Amino acid sequence: MLLCDGCHREIDREHPDAYPEARLHDMKRRHEAWVSRAVGLKPDSQSHILRFTNRIEANETAIPLDDCVLAMQAIGKTPASIHAIDLKIGVSGHNETDDVYWAAEPGDLQNFFNRKFEGYFNTGKVRHLSVFGFGPMPLLMKLGQLLPDLHDIDVFTRHREPTPSWCWKDGAPTFQPYCTEGAAKSNRVAIKLSVTDRISDERVQSAIGEDDLSIWEITCNRPGYDVLSTREDLSDFRTVVRSTFNRIRQCHGEAVEISVFPAAPGSCLESGGNSPAASSGHGDLGLIKPRGQG
Fold it and tell me: Is the CA virtual torsion 121, 260, 199, 223 positive or negative?
């Protein structure tokens, strides 16, 4: 069995008793099965990895490349490059509680995105994107605006249970999202994305005022961190979002001002042209700076 120098030292010299013949045969068999799956896929299975990370409060975030590859392979995709396309931004010395942070970050993200992807989409260098994002919710929404709707994109989300993973779960969708409509004949609309937790009307009103405000909500029967666990769940969410924006347009007109209050996984916010942030053609969408936790 061909091994690298480090593994040879581990198996042949340092801990030979820990690697009996049966274990070595099993290691070889599992690796050959992985290679067979990888090379057996068609060329159009190749996907570029896009990782977006940003400081959340004082914490640096990172998404291991191995986790991305594992999640991609589960849906039949393989990396088109050994290097990920990384969008990593953050104002030095500031975090999301500072006004300086929100004055700079959305514009910095757009400029960084444009530099990274200049010429990529138009020349066909990127045929498919696998997107992994971890950061403050408004910036994930901004990324959703920037992702092109005309390209094939898969968005992944980090699941907490039973073990932390970026892999979509198998099985039938159980999310079952629905929309609760707000009062009609108002010039301002707030949409609550109550997926991971409930958002009270009072929090919305304290942030943007309650005069002439219509509050809509997209939610499910039991909001929670891992309630959105399959790719079909995400597809159902997108369907409800699209129909909700169409209803808002019917009820409030094209020029309505829309503010989005998300308590949702990142995949809900950065799903390319299907995200709420990318639907601003229905009116002006406010990018609300977070206040407090949640």
Answer: negative
Q: Which residues in 240-270 are b (16+ Cβ under 10 Å) and which e?
A: bbeebbeebbebbeeebbbbbbbbbbbbbbb
DSSP 147: S
- Domain 178-286 grouped into CATH 3.20.20: no
Q: pTM score, two decimals?
A: 0.73
Q: Hey, what CATH topology would domain 43-156 get? A: Rossmann fold (3.40.50)
Which of 111, 140, 126 has the alpha carbon at shortest distance from 271?
140
| Among 58-72, 201-215, 247-261, the least confident range | 58-72
Mean pLDDT, rounded, of the chain? 80
DSSP secondary structure letters along 174-238 = ----EEE---SS-SEEEEEEESSS---HHHHHHHH-STTEEEEEEE-SS--TTS--SHHHHHHHH
| pLDDT over 60 at 215, yes or no | yes
Q: Which amino acid is at 175?
A: F
Task: Give 276's pLDDT tier (boundaries 50, 70, 90).
Answer: very low
What are the CA-CA distances from residue 156 to residues 75, 100, 129 (Å)?
Answer: 11, 30, 11
Name the residue ranges covered by the structural domains of the chain: 5-39, 43-156, 178-286
